[in-house]
C-alpha cells in the first residue's frame, strides 16, 4: 500500500495486486467500481448481489444494486487502461519472443507477417523493421511514437504508453472520448457530441480536469488529516493501555506485599481485591481492544479510499479522472463526514490503600480505588516525580506504610457505566463506603477533595468474577499456595499435519511430561523447560485421549479401549470399555502399579497384568447412573478426585468409593468442572475453561479461591497435571503449555 501523502508509481500499480479482483483473486475482467471505491469483476459482483443489495467484501458496506443490474455500476476506465498495458505484455509473451508484424498482412505480405522488432505506442501495433521505418513517413502517422519492442516488453515505455492511450467510447467503437458534458457529467466522443448533447455546454477533457481536480485534491487533503488524527488516537490508546498494565502490575505487587505479612484472616480480603483488580484490567483491556479494532477499521477504510483517489489523480488520464470524479468526491465527502472517534477513553487506574485496623478481623484491609488516567500534557505539568496512582506515603523504619494523619485511608471504588446504546438502563454499582458505621469520620487524603469524578466508559460486563471468599481452615498450611510463572512453550512439532489438540497430560520421569495429542495421534515427551524429547509410539490408528504414566509403562484411553504399552510402544494389553461414554479419564495410582479409569459413572482399577483389581461407584450403588466422571486423578493420600458432569460438581472419594467431600457451589461460576490435579499436600487444582480460571480447593473439596486466571495468561485452559508435586502444567486450546511453580506462602 502506498504511504500517506506520497504519489504512487505506475510500476507499483502494475506489479501490485491492484489489478487483481479480491473475490476471484484473478486479473480483473470488466472492472466495476462500487460507491466505496473498491473494484471487482462484473461477474463476481453479480454472484454477490442478493435482494437488490450487495455487501462489499473488503469494507462490508452495503451497496444498493441498480435496477438494471451490476452492469450499471461505473466502469473503471483507470483500471482498464492499466489492464491494456498488462494485456499487451502478455500477448507478446504468448508469441514465444517472436511476435509477428501487424501491418505486413495488410500490405500484401506474408499472411503471418514478418518478425516484429518495434511497437507503435499510438496504434498499439507490433511492427517489423521495414514497417516501422515506413510508419514514420506518412502524414497520418509521422507523429506516432515508435519504440523498440524489447524495451517496451521490459516496461521501459509504460509511462509514455499511458500518456498516449485514448479512452474509447463504449457506444462508438474506434472513437476516443474527448469532451465532458457539464449538465450530464458524461464523457463524450465526437459522435455523441453531435447527437443528444448538441445543445449542452461541453468542455474538452483537459479543461474539465483543470476545473475539477482542485476540488478533489481539497477533499483528499481533508481525509489525509483525518487519517493522521486516527493514527495519533490509536497510538494514544496503546500508550494508555500500556500505562494501565504497568500500573496494574505495580498495584498487584503492592497487594502481594501487603497480603504476605498478614495472618490467615486476611486471605479472604486479599482474594477479593486481586479478583477485583483482574476484573477491572480485563474489562479495560476488552474496551481498549474494541476501540483499537474500531479505529483500525476506520483507518483502513479511509486509507484505501484515499489511496485509490490518489492513484486516479496521479496516474489517470483526463477521461478516467472525470469518469470517477463523482464517485470519488462522494466517497471522500462521506468519509469526512464520518463521526471519527475522539481521543482515548480515560482509564480508571487502580490504587492500593491500607486501613489502620490491620488486626481487625471484621475490617476490609485491602480495597481498590480507581481514578482517571492523566493525559500526557497533564502528567508533564505535574512533574517527572509524580506517578498516577502512586502517592508518596511516609514510611516507618521497617519500610511499612504508615497511615495518613490519624491513620485512616479512604477506600473507594468507582466502576465505569456501560454506554446506553440500546436504550436499556444499566444499573449503577454503588460506590464502596468507607468504614464509618462505627462512628469513624471520613478524612480527606492529603487535603484534597475526596469527591471523585465518575467516568462513563466503554467497558462491558465481564463474567470472570472473583471466586467466593475461602473458608478460614486451610488444612494447617498457613497460607494459600500461589503460582510463580516458570516457562511457556508450544507443542506443535515439524512433523505434525494438524494443530495440536491436547487431551491428556501426565508426569513422565523426573522433570518431564507426556502430552497426549489426539489430533496428531501422538504421545509427545517434553521436559519442563519445553525441550522436545521424542515420542512414545502408539498402535496404528489410535488417537490417545487421556494418559497416565505407571512404573515402566504408559496407560492411555483411545475410543472405547484402555491400552497399556511399554515406553518403546509395545502393547502389553488392551481392554474394551463402555461405548456409552465419549471419553474415558485415566489416572495412575500413587503406588505406580495400578491404573484407574472412569467408565459410565463408576471407576475401574486394573493392575499391571490387566486384571480388574477393584470397581466402585462414587457414593455407593444408590448413585448408580447419577455420576459421569469426565476427568479423574488421584491424591498422594490415595483418594480419587473427579469432575462430575452429571452433577456439575467436584467429588472426592476414598478407595472404596465413599464420598468424603464434594463441591458444587458458586465458585464454579455455573461452568462444568474441568481437568483436576493434586499437589503433594493434597490441594486440588480445578480447571474452569469457560472463565479462564484454575481454582484451588482443600483436600476435602472446600473452595479456597482463585489460583490462576486470565491475568496469568490463561486462555481456554484444557488439561492440567502436577509434576514432582510442585509444578502445575496447564495446556491451552491452541496447543501452548504454561508451567507454574506452586509455592506455599509459608515456605
Automatic annotation (TrEMBL):
Residues 374-383 have a biased composition (Basic and acidic residues). Residues 164-205 form the B box-type domain. Residues 389-404 have a biased composition (Polar residues). Pathway: Protein modification; protein ubiquitination. The keyword Cell membrane does not apply. Keywords: Antiviral defense, Coiled coil, Cytoplasm, Immunity, Innate immunity, Metal-binding, Phosphoprotein, Repeat, Transferase, Ubl conjugation pathway, Zinc, Zinc-finger. It comes from Camelus dromedarius (Dromedary). Residues 21-60 form the RING-type domain. Gene3D superfamilies: Classic Zinc Finger (3.30.160.60), TolB, C-terminal domain (2.120.10.30), Zinc/RING finger domain, C3HC4 (zinc finger) (3.30.40.10). One of its GO terms (biological process) is defense response to virus. InterPro entries: 6-blade_b-propeller_TolB-like, TRIM45/56/19-like, Znf-RING_euk, Znf_B-box, Znf_RING, Znf_RING/FYVE/PHD, Znf_RING_CS. Transmembrane segments: none annotated. SUPFAM superfamilies: 3-carboxy-cis,cis-mucoante lactonizing enzyme (SSF75011), B-box zinc-binding domain (SSF57845), RING/U-box (SSF57850). It comes from the Eukaryota. PROSITE patterns: ZF_BBOX (PS50119), ZF_RING_1 (PS00518), ZF_RING_2 (PS50089). One of its GO terms (cellular component) is cytoplasm. Belongs to the TRIM/RBCC family. This is E3 ubiquitin-protein ligase TRIM56. It is an enzyme of class 2 (transferase). Pfam families: zf-B_box, zf-RING_UBOX.
